[in-house]
Amino acid sequence: MPLSLPRSLPLDAERYHPDPREPVDRWFQTASASNVRTTMAVVADLVGPSCRAVVDPFAGGGSSAMAARLMDLPFFGIEIDPVLACVSLAKSRATVRHARILRRLPPIRDPESLLPVLAMLPAYASADEVAVASCLAVVLALRASRGTPLGYEDVTGDLARLRPPAATGRVVCADATAPVGWRGLAVPKAGIVLYTSPQFGRRSPLLGAPPRLTASARDVLAAAEADQGRKAAPKDSGFAATTVAMLRQAAAMTRRATVIIEHEPDDDGHDATREVLEQAAAALPGRVHDARVIVCGQFTWRGPLSLIVFELR
Ligand SMILES: C[S@@+](CC[C@H](N)C(=O)[O-])C[C@H]1O[C@@H](n2cnc3c(N)ncnc32)[C@H](O)[C@@H]1O
User: Fold this and answer.
1) Spatial CB neighbours of 229, under 8 Å, sequence gap ≥ 6
2) Beta-sheet pairing, 257-263 with 303-312
3) In this structure, are residues 33 and 18 in contact, taking their beta carbons and an 8 Å threshold?
4) Going by fewer Cβ within 10 Å, which terminus of the chain is more open, N or C?
């Protein structure tokens, strides 16, 4: 573990918030998304070239997926919201070819017009391509449902700027605190960075996509064998309990990992950084090493953003 502090910590708003111009990432950025370039810089500083894969068990709209792609690393993600799981999957695996396939089909103007496109896709694409193209179609429907349609030129142009994704990697819709999603994910046993931003309390923003779109996203993921999810919304067990429940599953699946967890205080200002480290050390005896909390800038009324960092061995 290098001793130097990350050169590019999110110390100011520009490094903290997602960049609305970042190609592909800009297709959809959740209210709690991270800045892709900052994530890359933190991973580069804390893990260095030994990093072989990025894992994000609370993948949201895929800022870590995007960072992994730009670092040419496989991405393994879990996300409980089906629409966001599709967004993460599209960001990590879509290519120009998928965009061109969709372009041959009727335009996606809303969740309703997504349905015929999904039905037609198998006639235009191979089985592997259908899964990714369907997720890309869900992204287009999500954007249309928000009154900010995404043009095919923008999608194709963004993808043309990227290299093809790493051959391995997977995104599933599942509960990251339960074993089933992790089993389907098959993360490498070593050389990974687990970079994540868990749900931080009741007011942590949820997506709230139209129910019809969520149902279609679920069907898309089921067809791609990427739906291992509990169907209910996650219950609010608190930041530390949720994070440690996830870490138990991660630790069962991997021998060595650098863990980087973004933390913001809960709605009541409660700081859970110490609880996470104490409970993780108790839940995973002998496996938590070099633990520290790096305090970054303050971007919300709740309190500062911190990175909880440790080596899992
Ligand atoms: C703070 S957001 C992550 C933001 C993410 N970095 C992005 O780029 O959008 C937390 C995410 O965790 C998801 N989530 C909450 N509980 C979960 C669980 N038990 N398993 C998997 N995902 C969960 C939420 O749906 C939400 O998208």
Assistant:
1) 80, 82, 85, 172, 173, 174, 175, 181, 218, 221
2) antiparallel
3) yes
4) N
Give the pairing type, strands 303-312 and 75-79.
unpaired
Strands of 53-56's sheet in order across = 170-173, 75-79, 53-56, 192-196, 257-263, 303-312, 288-300
Task: Report how far ligand 1's centroid is from the alpha carbon of 62 (Å).
Answer: 10
- Residue whose Cα lies nearest atom 18 of ligand 1: it is 175
Rounded CA-CA distance 198/177 in Å is 11
Element (H, E) at 303: strand 303-312
**Confidence at residue 1, expressed as pLDDT on a 0 to 100 scale:** 42
Give, in order, the Cα–Cα distances in Å from 5 to each of 2, 44, 195, 223.
Answer: 8, 11, 16, 43
Cα 200 to middle of ligand 1, angstroms: 9
User: Which has the closest alpha carbon to 7: 47, 34, 44?
Assistant: 44
Q: Given CA atoms 278, 280, 282, 288 in this order, what sign does their dihedral have?
A: negative
